[in-house]
Design a protein that fits this description.
12 helices; alpha+beta; 18 strands; eight-stranded mixed beta sheet
């Protein structure tokens, strides 16, 4: 959430940021009007309350009963007016909070201008595109042939965009998750096992509500929501807390299944396992002081890259433009791995600096060691990495001419020493 003081004092900056994001800047005017009305109501209410307090003291000192009663009667009218002002003030404050919470974060000055994903900038490519002396298969052919991906039973059990990983396919995915968690622990993150369902307040704090309500799965009876990413419960870990500066930065990693309704991608990537309503992901998350967040963004990006490199995958780093930037982010790097079967780059990680945007929504602050006023922390998040695209990349990059798939060396300890996945038939 943006600071209302920033919107009030630099409205043109916010309007430009919205325009750069390909959004209508008009809501800024409505916010300014609500803010002005809120301040006017607050001034009127406080003035009347001060008057009531002063008169109450005066009444206590009055001896003449008739005069005292007249004052009491006049104050009843003032009390009614105060009640009406307080009610209107609460309504305006709720409208103002809703309007401000609908605004995205401001793009960093380093974020390139662009209207959509076509404006993203490839910063570098690491590794060479693999070459084969055979025609590489696409994972939706490769997986069923090996007996490790079952699309038909996934559809039978649940419906479209669901599948079953079986045998060594399930074990390979589990190996990827376990290896990535252990890697991030070695990189300095503390593993968390968080709930896979959260409260509305937790989703609001993470910037998911109300913006993405149509893409979330909701249990209305209990008012609990399935997590769309581990970023959400990790944000919620320190909601409404004041952290000790000496403990910053706090670095977490967590695995969760993720649930998204994918309404925004209707009709896209319907074949295979590239995009589904349920998927697994390992997340990296950092709480830090504002002056540390830029350096930690680069550190987290390097950690995501190390995951791709450890798997021996060719990857590239792309910086998102203003028109493709996520709601809460100011600057984002996407890490994309090459998929030889699909013949495309697959995004497996987005690493973002969210500055104090989530911290304001979730009430996460820290107390400086010098005893000065508490400040909002900065938060950063990054996938490390996301499934099933990492699984796709491993299967397609490590396939062999006979249709088998080599297991990347770093995963073999979690595969019980299995080196090659062959057809189970």
């Amino acid at each position: 959430m943006l600071d209302i003081n920033l919107i009030r004092e630099q409205p043109d900056l916010v309007r430009k940021a919205l325009s750069d994001r390909q959004m209508d800047p008009a809501p800024v005017d409505g916010i300014l009007q609500l803010d002005s009305r809120r301040r006017a109501l607050l001034t009127d209410a406080e003035s009347l309350k001060a008057e009531r307090n002063a008169v109450s003291k005066e009444i206590g000192q009055m001896k003449e009963a008739a005069s005292r009663q007249a004052k009491i009667e006049s104050m009843r009218a003032v009390g009614d007016r105060i009640s009406a002002l307080d009610k209107e003030l609460a309504e305006v404050e709720e409208q103002l909070k809703a309007a401000v919470s609908a605004l995205p974060n401001l793009p960093d000055a380093r974020t390139p201008l662009g209207k959509d994903e076509s404006g993203n900038v490839v910063l570098r490519t690491v590794g060479q595109l693999p070459e084969y002396d055979f025609e590489p298969k696409i994972h939706w052919d490769l997986g069923p042939a090996l007996g490790i991906i079952d699309f038909e039973r996934g559809v039978k059990i649940t419906g479209s965009r669901f599948y079953v990983l079986t045998g060594l396919g399930a074990r390979l995915q589990r190996a990827l998750i376990a290896w990535m968690l252990d890697l991030h622990i070695r990189q300095g993150y503390t593993e968390q096992y968080t709930p896979f369902m959260v409260k509305s307040a937790t989703l609001f704090g993470a910037g998911q509500l109300p913006k993405f309500v149509d893409n979330l799965y909701h249990d209305a009876e209990e008012d609990l929501w399935m997590v769309p990413t581990a970023e959400v419960p990790l944000t919620g870990l320190h909601m409404d807390e004041i952290l000790d500066e000496k403990k910053l930065p706090v670095m977490y990693t967590a695995y969760t299944p993720c649930f998204r309704r994918e309404k925004m991608s209707a009709g896209r990537d319907v074949r295979g396992i590239k995009r589904g309503h349920q998927f697994d992901k390992v997340e990296m998350y950092i709480f830090c002081k504002p002056e540390e967040s830029d350096d930690l963004l680069e550190k987290m990006r390097a950690h995501a890259e190390a995951t791709c490199a450890g798997l021996g995958l060719t990857y590239r780093v792309t910086q998102l433009c203003t028109g493709d930037l996520g709601f809460g982010s100011t600057i984002t790097y996407d890490i994309e791995v090459w998929s030889p079967g699909l013949q495309e780059w697959l995004e497996v990680s987005s690493v973002s600096n969210v500055t104090d945007f989530q911290a304001r929504r979730a009430g996460i602050r820290y107390r400086p060691a010098d005893g000065s006023k508490v400040r909002f922390v900065h938060t950063l998040n990054g996938s490390g990495l996301g499934m099933p695209r990492t699984l796709i990349a491993v299967l397609e990059n490590y396939q062999q001419a006979d249709g088998s798939v080599k297991v990347p060396e770093v995963l073999r300890p979690w595969m019980g020493g299995v080196e090659i996945i062959r057809s189970q038939e």
